[in-house]
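Sorry, explain these tokens?

***
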Amino acid sequence: MKALSLKQPFAELILSGKKTIELRNWNTKFRGNFLIHSSRVSDKKAMKKFGFDILPVGKILGIANLVDVREYKNDIEHEKDKKKHLADTSWGNFGFVLEDVTRIKPLDAKGMLGFWEFEYPPV
């Protein structure tokens, strides 16, 4: 199954339903379910901003359905969805619209850039 690595606390914000759009600097034609992986390195500034001390890292934590990609062509479009992606334009102009997010039992995994393959469910 495809997986996508996100720094904490962004993986947790998606899993908790507070973030429904994941920003990226690249587009994708992929649509469907993928695994949410927490990168081994957290974003310390964002951890403080969103009130987290410790969150799981280096693990598959959930499943989400990528249903659409929004391209933000200007700051006005980007700002309109701020409550959904919780970030500024430096995080990217492509918004991966997520639905049906489910938390799963954490699984150890090494992440990669972009979408990558992970055997799920594990055998």
